[in-house]
Amino acid sequence: MALNTTDLVLAGYQLFFAIVLIFRGPFDQGRGWLLLSCVLFGVLLALLRRAPAESVATRLLHTFYPLILFGGFYTALGVLNGGLSPERIHAHDALVQRWEQTLFGGQPSYDLIRRYPSVFVSGLLHLAYFSYYPIILLPGPILAARGDWAGARRVIGASMTAYAVCFVVFVLFPVAGPNWVFPHPTGPVREVWSARLVYHLLEGGSSVGTAFPSSHVAATFATVVVAWRVWPPLGRVTVVPFVLLTIAVVYCQMHYAMDALMGLVFGGGTVWLMGGQGGRGGPPDGRRSDGSGSS
């Protein structure tokens, strides 16, 4: 089976990550295992190249392995950046805060929830923040269930490419984000059930230095645009949650407004770079118009 663009993008990112690991060292706190995981990712791609393209198991693995592995890629960033001094990361936060002050005349990620302390708005926007997970995870399987495997790969490829670009920035320019450098909001806006759910998820799976740009915004934007092109009804369903999510990452004090703005730039840039890969999907059975099976 031939490798596709998503495979090559992730392989390039893993190579970059491995090089940074080697130069930063030492291989303690799990970093040796991270280097091994980079090698194993290369083994996975080599095995996929040798796998029979007509196999259903191969098609499933080749299409969905990025969704299975991207959580591990994100966690690895926390291990890598955890070796940096807090002062180095917070210096980047200070720089982004100066950008905020210049562009917005304040700190929207700190000010908004305190200026508009609505339990309803907080509940809605924290729920919108959580909608990031279904927006990223569900379009690919939905399209595959319709028989549009090419469309599923395009949608997943859009989000994974956006992630990869953001992850490179996280390695080179780690920013902790307002959730870590500002005091948390208090009172009913913080205690609403959806806010408690979000904070519980962050406590169990957040990685240091992954605020700028917002990969939440970048990956969901790319996903929504490509999903709309592949199957418009799917794209339309995700638009409102995406818009609310973009507002939520700032209102809920998870990202600076600059993070969200640059997330839109990175997500839009991903779609533009993908070019024809972001177009409409092929026939429902995932075959190309010349009648040959897609890989």
Q: What would you say this structure looks like, in words?
A:
With 295 residues, this protein is mostly helical. It has a domain at 86-278. The protein is built from 15 helices and no strands. The protein has helices spanning 5-24, 31-50, 56-81, 86-104, 108-115, 119-130, 132-137, 139-145, 149-172, 178-181, 188-191, 193-205, 215-230, 232-251, 257-274. Helix 8 (139-145) runs antiparallel to helix 9 (149-172). It is globular, with a radius of gyration of 20 Å. The termini are close together.
What global shape is seen? Answer: globular
How do the helices and strands follow one another from N- to C-terminus?
HHHHHHHHHHHHHHH
- Number of continuous helical runs: 15
Helix content: over 70%
Summed over residues and divided by their number, the pLDDT gives a mean of: 89
The Rg value, from CA coordinates, equals 20 Å
The main pleated sheet reads as: none
Structural class determined from secondary elements? mainly alpha
Strand content: under 5%
List low-pLDDT spans.
276-295
Structure summary, number of beta strands:
0
